[in-house]
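Can anyone check this?
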Amino acid sequence: MSVVEELVRLSLRLGEPGQDLAILAEGNASALDGDTFWVKASGFSMSSMNAAGLIQVDLRHALDVLNGPDLDDAQTREALKQVRTDKDTDLMPSVETFMHAYLLSLPDIAFVGHTHPTPLLSLLATDQAESIARKRLFPDEIVCCGPATAYVPYVDPGLPLARAIKSSVERYIETWESTPKTIWLQNHGLIVLGKNRKEIESGTLMGVKAARVWLGALSSGQTLTPLTEQQVNRIHTRPDEHYRQRLLWQLKGTQS
């Protein structure tokens, strides 16, 4: 299956109305393809995605913009035009293209999915979100979403957000010596990154389940007992959990 076909499948999965991950033109996804990547074009809906709704971007050119000077809105729009491999197309890349460029430049990352799940947005609208991002309540959350989640305070979508995500991921890597599987954006949404489409699907679905668990636990009024740091580290490093992680990616619920 081609990269474009894989990305279309991922987009359709993330855009399924029953999943409550993204509605209308919300969310976007991307996939690495050599020295370029494909990303959802602005204004398209993931629920009805096809190859015509994807646009190819020059990865190095996009990274140069990310690492370059600050740009105003008009300059950013022009930069988005220039990073397209097809300068004649009328399509515009997603405003979050620079975020995708950075994440796809990380080692072993080939797919990225960004959604706005309702349960998670409920958590991200609270003053406890950053603290919750560092905690885990159950083992499969660690398996699919990592030992912790990188957290980004609210930043205007576009180039400023891409740079804030870069800073957050760099701090995470310094702490955990590994790339995050999930990123929370305050008052905005979820990012999942991985080697393949199934990692994005499983990480997204498990991340939403975790958000529901948190909401239920918080609403109970009882004392919460997150997993301890020792317990998290144990699950994160267990060989059998890495094996089970691969099996989870093959479950029917993560296939389309």
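Reply from J.R.: I decoded it. The mean pLDDT is 93.
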